[in-house]
Every structure is written in C-alpha cells, then in structure tokens.
Amino acid sequence: MANQIPVVDYLSLDGAPHLEAQECENCGALYFGRRNACAKCFKPGPFKVRRLADTGTIRGFSIIQRAVPGLTAPYVSALVDLDGGGSVKGNIINTEPSPENIKLGMPVRLATYSLGTDDDGTEAVAFGFQPA
Amino acid sequence: MSDDVFIIGLAQHKFGRFPEKDSLDMASEIAMAALADAGMTMADIDVMGCGSLLEAGSGQRILHQIGATGIPVYNVTNACATGANAVRVAYMEIKAGISQVGLAVGFEKMGKSGLLGLAAKVAGADKKVWAPAGRTGSVMPTEGVLGSGMMPAVFAEIAMEYANNNDGVGFEQFAKVAEKSHAHSVLNPYSQYRKAFSLEEVMNAEVIAWPNTLPMCGPTGDGAAAVVIVSGEKLKTLPDDVRKRAVKISASVMTSDPWTAGGQAGPDVNTCTRMAADKAYEMAGVDPQDLDLVELHDCFATAELVHYDNLRLCEPGMAGKFIDERGPWRDGKIPVNVSGGLVSKGHPLGCTGVANLVEVGMHLRGEAGDRQIPDAKVGLTHVIGLGSTCAIHILEKVS
Ligand SMILES: [Zn+2]
What fold characterizes domain B5-112+220-397? Predict the structure, then answer.
C-alpha cells in the first residue's frame, strides 16, 4: 500500500483515522496546530496530545455555491462540535449539499477521503464529516 | 487625561466605482471637505490617523497633496476595522493630552474586484510532492477542503450558529435584513446601490454561500471618509457655528477576540462585540434602548442579525423576532443601517469604519437629508475586523 500523509497534522492516520488536539495541561483548552503558550490561561504549557471523538454535531454551516476558481461547488462547510470537546471546521461529505438535507444540530461522524497522490506516490488524505 | 472629544468636521465620498479618480484624489477631496466643514485647514491639525488596507502607509501621501506640516501620521491597518482604528489613534492622542485637533481619514480603492473575499487565489495547485508546512502541517491550501474561509461562507456559518442556538431564526429572517437595508439605501445619495428588493427577490436570488444570496452580500467598491476631532478644551475656543454642530464621542472602545472553545473552528465575532458593547454603554452612560440609530457591520445580511443580539438592541435570543417585527427599519424601534448598510452602501474596507461615524454624525446634526432620522440624539457605530477586532463608537448630539 502506498504511503499516506494527512492533509493537516491534526488528522492522525495512526490506526483508525482520528483528530488530535493540543490540550493545555493547566486549563484543558484545546487547540489545533503548534502552540507557543495557552491563549486561555496564559501559561506556557505544557500541552499534551488529546485524541478527539469521531462524532459530533453541526453548530453552523454554509452551502457554498460560488467557490473560488479551481474548487468544485456546491459543497458544505461546517463548524462541528465534537462530542466530549473540541470544535473543528470541515466539509460535510457523502451527502447531498442542500438546505433540505443539511440540518443544524445534525449528528455527524468523521470520514476520510483521498486528495490524490504526489509524484512520489504518496497519497494525501483529507477529513470531513458525514451524517452519523 | 483630557476631557471629552468632539467631531467638528465630517465628510464622505459616495461609495461606488470611480475609475476617473485615483485613491489620492478621493482621499484628498474628502479630507479637505472635512477640514472645510470644521472651518479649519491643515495648519490646525496636530495629528493624523489614516486607514487603508490595500494601500497601507498612505497618510503622508495625502498630506503631500493637502498640506504637509510635519505632524505625526499613524498609518493603521486592522482588516475591516481599519477606519475605526484611524479615528481611534487620533482620539487617543487627544485623550492623552498630546494633541488638541486630529484628522482621521479612511479610504479604499477596490474597483470591481468582485464579491467580498472571493478574490483569493488558490496557490500551490501545481505542487508535486506533499510536504507539511505551517503551524498545522498542511500539505496543500485547505480552502474548500477543510471548510471554507471565504467571507460569504464564514458569515453564513456565524449566522447559522445563531440560528442553532436561538428559535425563530432562519433563511427568511436573514433575507428580511437585506430587504430592509436595500429599502433604506434608496434614500441615501452616498450609497453604491440604491435599489429596493422585495423579500421574494432576495430569497430567490442566486445563492453565493447559503443562506447568503447575492443581495445579502456587500459589494466591493471605492470610498473615502474623514472626520476632524478636537478636545473639549479646544472646542470652547471655536466659533459658535462650529460648536453648535459638534458631535460628542461619548465612547470609543476596541476589543480583540478572547479565547473561546468555538473560536478554534471559526472566527468568534460575538464575544468581542459583546465585550465592546458592554464597555461602550458603560463609558457613555447610554442604554441600548436610548439609541436613535445604529450603523453596524453588515458585510453580509447574515452578519447583521447576530449583532442585534450582541449589541443588545433586542431581548436576548430574540434577533429573529426583532427583524420580524421590523425593529431595525428606519421607522422601527431602533433603526439599523439607515445608510443602506454595507450590503447596499458598499464596503470599501479601510473607509467603512470612518464612514459610519460620518453617517451617524450627519443624523445627529440633523443634516442627513431625505434619510434623516427625526430628532436623533444618540447613535452607535460598530465594525468587525476579522482576526478578530471589534470597534464601537457612541456619538451624541451636543446642543
Ligand atoms: Zn491553558
């Protein structure tokens, strides 16, 4: 099987794909990406990696009909609150992108898909959420 | 610390597309108009704040046209809050007692660059080897892959979050906001678009980023606006006709977005607005229900609705009811965006935060012509700069 690389480093492909946050050990604030300190409690850290839930609910969304050049519309961009903590932005996938179909508060589950391979044969993997 | 600060001169250029003028033509014309309105020249000005996002660092270029006297110039950028920041730096110098008279100019020359935030380019599409880069180790631009960061989508999500948390809010309420603002714009000669739309027309228009349809999105364009502000001490020395038309800046407040859990997924424009509003009402000794008009940051009609609640113009959670009952219409409980708002008046980025002070100032002086809110005594201006910043000013009629 070809090598895989996640589209962002907070998507872990180690075992079942899942999201990982940086958690402030002092106050529990969750972040994506490299940290210099905690914006919530102002301590320098330390931070530990926390595995986030695969399930959550849609807090807000938009159905993009007019996308920037090079992207295919329509697609759904959403704010997802994960069960047990963590809030993340991602596309709602594997379902029809219509206002009749996408609902606020809708339960969703993490899903991954391929973004294609590079010249070395490495496959980039993205995450999205699909109806749970 | 100095006493109160007053606006004694104001001017705005009509928003729109003016290919025959360059940005210096527009900014100079309006700065000169604000000075004339104050009965002053550049010789009287102690400090300048200048806001432009696309041409940052332009304050001196304006002074080279209208009067280069050696005064300090603060060139500021802060996304869509840029203009309000230009006012605030001049305000702070006066408050600090360093300066007595300040000029703040905001301008932007955008031309026809399309819809707000849709001009971004997708870079790196030709990348041949996935290599993690940046603080989240992304191997490619993530626009459209991990949601959208484009403005029509971001402000749609913010509004849908409000709908998720509060009853009686949906597509129809967002569309009603646009219907209201476009109706207001018909009366405003400074507005880029002056065309009324029925609710049906707004709802049936092309969807850009649902629930934002085309008439719910602010157009880009050119604009310039300027204010001349003075200390209370200075005001006392000025002629009667200047003092009579002075408008008091009862509050000038700026906040940035504090940490919130939800703010990690998308910008939180609510918390910084609520913080700024609380502080501004306290500073001015004004209750939201005392406001005669509000110019708030409706880069999209969806964005306007959430700020009814953030600015406490309505009961908590009742922004849907507020628009349903026509509260923000010009003859409603608290008129909002009687200028037509950014969705019709236009949104020349660095200009917007100065122009909304000019707009409210004109009403408080009773000089707003056909769109005048009768007997207006107190008004509020609000801008959001994504990133995020909130700036609020409360203005009051003096005489
Ligand atoms: Zn912390």
Answer: Peroxisomal Thiolase; Chain A, domain 1 (3.40.47)
